[in-house]
Amino acid sequence: MKKLLAVTVIALLAIAAFNSIDGHDMVVHWNGEEMDGPLEWLFGMLFAGGGLVIAAIAITCAAVFVGFLFAGLGILMVVGLVLLGLVLAAAIAPFLLPLLIPLGIWWAIRKRNKRDVLVKEPAATV
Hints:
Layout (H helix, E strand, L loop, with lengths): L1 H21 L5 E3 L2 E3 L4 H53 L4 H24 L6
Antiparallel strand pairs: 1-2
């Protein structure tokens, strides 16, 4: 698939180059003067290629900037969601008290049972 894509791109560039060489209606203006002669198509292709290189660099820089921007916004979004969760938990905490009372009793019983098991074990003899 990669080979087919490379061959296609090269073929399209060759077609474009031959079309610009063959086309006599191509006009290149330099400092307000019309250039003609055998090198007019060469200068036209050179300047168009330079414009494409500049555009590719600009698009790459914009993509990197947008990547960093969205990464920063993603971090801010996660921090904001954590803060929102803390605020909601603080607001809901008084309403959770009826659920926390049985949980506290269960925790106290387990802790007391664990302490009784540790106390009742006989000491090791030396």
